[in-house]
Amino acid sequence: MNTLQQELERIARLVDIYLQPHMTKREPARLWEAAYHLPKAGGKRLRPFLMINVCKALGGNEEDALPPAVAIELIQAFSLVHDDIIDRDDLRRGVPTVHKKWGIPTAIVAGDLLHIKAYDIVTKAAMKNEKVMLVLPDILNEINEATIEICEGQELDEELEKNPQPTEEEYFDMISRKTAALFKASTAIGALVAGSSPEAVESMRSFGHILGVSFQIIDDILGLTADEKELGKPVGSDIREGKRTLLTIHALTSGSPDEKRTILKALGNAKASPRDFSKAVRAVVSTGALDYSTKKARAYVEEARKALLSLPESDERNLLDEALTFIVKRSY
Amino acid sequence: MNTLQQELERIARLVDIYLQPHMTKREPARLWEAAYHLPKAGGKRLRPFLMINVCKALGGNEEDALPPAVAIELIQAFSLVHDDIIDRDDLRRGVPTVHKKWGIPTAIVAGDLLHIKAYDIVTKAAMKNEKVMLVLPDILNEINEATIEICEGQELDEELEKNPQPTEEEYFDMISRKTAALFKASTAIGALVAGSSPEAVESMRSFGHILGVSFQIIDDILGLTADEKELGKPVGSDIREGKRTLLTIHALTSGSPDEKRTILKALGNAKASPRDFSKAVRAVVSTGALDYSTKKARAYVEEARKALLSLPESDERNLLDEALTFIVKRSY
Questions:
Q1: Is the pTM of this model over 0.90?
Q2: Cα–Cα distance for residue pair B130/B195, rounded to 1 Å
Q3: What is the least distance, in Å, from the CA of A130 to any CA of chain B?
Q4: Which member of B27, B82, B137 has the closest CB to residue A112?
Q5: Which of A30, B96, B133, B267 has the greatest count of CB atoms below 10 A from its CB?
Q6: Is the link from the previous residue into A234 a cis peptide, with omega within 30 of 0?
Q7: CATH pick for B4-327 out of 1.20.120.450, 3.20.20.70, 1.10.600.10, 1.10.1060.10
């Protein structure tokens, strides 16, 4: 049996090999290079890993799950390219963002192209593979719904930044759509392609959702604590951009007046000094927000672990279980 | 039999009624309003008209063609919302553009949402309608390919603006993708939904393509000659934005050195005075570019008229023929 690391690398290679001819055969070269830039820059390929291993755990074939897995990775890439324009981020996966390198007009269109290629890859796979064709409308439904939720989550995220008193409930609604929706679609499509019952598909949808929620909380934690090398983008950028994370919401709800003042001075304030940012990070930590968020994330991960038990015992279930441990460990 | 005008209005109503519940039932309201803004603002619904009438002329049903017709209208709307951000246009169909009213971040996401809803509407229709389900992968292929071409055409358009010596060949390649591709998809899908043979689908694809090319040339002419009320956007904006149209390319190729100088002074120059713009417009006209382009557009329309003859004689074929006359008349 592969270790988790070996399996992630194996799937990353499969995705890369499958994707390459889809992104390199057309003109104008400048646009296609811009579109290929982010998918080529790597990433953990966690969603393809989840889809393929759920599919196999339920008795399905890897070949059938690979095209929708690549499509999900493209949906993720498309939304990141557009998000980075919106958030004015300069770095992603350790490389310049698309709009930084090619300008905003080309980045908008490059994101659109990745979006279409997701549908194109699933459509072409269905035309060649009867098993995919049988569930094509269901796969499309999962992708459509998840992508609509990502758009809604993106808008809610922006609205939350302008909300003076954001609540945890609003935060969880936002990340359910912005982050968990695509995890949910990945695990549900894995079950669909395996030809599973509606109940099994629903169990896996729920597993993906819980996993996605914990993943986002841990991302929030890393946004505060990780260094630039681990993160692939500048430290403290969540605070600089005024993002409402579980940490800042907790800190602003339960911090002392002094702590709150220090945080609000830097939160979303592009003109704040590096010293203001360090002070704000320390203030967030001193409210206990880090411990609080870590506990929440771990509780969700344990819930996801239980949801995994609905799968038959298998190497793939073990790998999925290991992945949960890996996701929590990222926050150490 | 309906007149063309009655038929266009009837189809516009059908499209609006079908679309409305898809755009008004979800939160956050701000995002969905922004997404619905352009489709609600009207438009000629020429592509749905073409799809539905091709389908009926080939013996198909209007009910089967309506959902993909709405989807094509949403693809058109999505690409316009993103185009307007790229071109910094403030007005479209006589109303403020989405980014002007809601800001660029929401406009990017609203465009993405329209894009997804196109796929969502086709997917849901296929799940309820066996005739649509039978050709679902073919419909998706047409939509995917057309939308990829729109993205490529958008990039080529920008590259053309920076090209000091753009040729007619480059121009026709650009508009084939940016404009004609979606006309081509509309007429091809009309034939697909009617259950037509691959040859009939190919004939209609070719009809839509030629029609789309003539439509764009006439749009270029109107961009120079129509007033703001007819156009729904400021006169001369093509020249202000530095767009390479058939008119400016012809003028820059065959104008006198004086005419060229006058045109280049205003073309793409945001700082040029209103007087510079008027002079540039007059210089374009004096090179004969207007006559040249009108002749070209008419030749394409007559070619499209011939392609129509592959359809069985029918009320719908007559309406499609009338539409060709209408398209040319716009340029008077």
A1: yes
A2: 12
A3: 12
A4: B82
A5: B267
A6: no
A7: 1.10.600.10
